[in-house]
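Quick one: structure tokens for this chain, please?
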Amino acid sequence: MKPFFALLFGLAAIAAGASKQQAEAFFQKYEFKKSLAEWTELYRKFPNKWEYAKQVANLQLLLEGRPKAVETVRNFPSQQETEISKQIMELSEVFLSEEAQSHYLQALSKTNLNEWNASLSPIKQASALESDNLKILFLKYEIEKHLDLYDQAYETLKAIQKIDSFSIKTKERLAESHIYHGRFSEAESLLETIDRESLSSRGKLALGVSLWELGKKEKAESLIIEVSHLRKPELSHHPVTLWMLYRIASEESEDSQKSQDAKMALKVFLKSSGDEERLLIDGWDPYRLTDHRVALAR
């Protein structure tokens, strides 16, 4: 039986090779519809071939629009999420309209000149033309965040995550926005979709805060303590970490030693947060530390 199956696989490989050459030939002659038909048939016969899925998606982007192309990549059955995310990013950063690209570049040039208010109108125009272009959406998010338009930035970030649902970085940033808006359960649910080994230190901090707010204090404390022991002072000594250490110490302040620990933690937090710039993470204050500092300083 083995020689028979070997023959079948050999014939299948030859057929695939011939079809692949035909698909590439059609593409070279700018016969994109015929090329797409060939690649689609190849992908149907060999659904686990990542190369074929990408070729189909690239041609769908050209002929059928971005949603169809992204759907093909997202539904690929057996590929690492990082690779799928990378391919979705590539498909979603292509400009399909010269007008959208022009508005985007105008907005970008304004941000480079620190003219953030002037950048808002052109990026909105670009987004109206290509609402699923990640390059546009990421710039729109940064502009809205810089202008303290946090509700709008929140919606933009949700749109980004909807397009590229595999990006760990986007999940972590959206979780921070959930926290800012008091949606701790949503933040926890989103961060729990990331395996613990892949979760960044910043993601662990966000998860720790969310768990604490939801009353899951033992799990929260473990994460916060882990972050506080990092050799990354930008996180281990960030005011949000110090604020959480104060909250942990306050919970355990039944004896005099714990009470002293809480007082010391509060003192360190207030001192570290005296400079408002230190409260910021990526240019904004997702944990509302400014409000907490004012309340605790009274």
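The first helix runs from residue 2 to 28.
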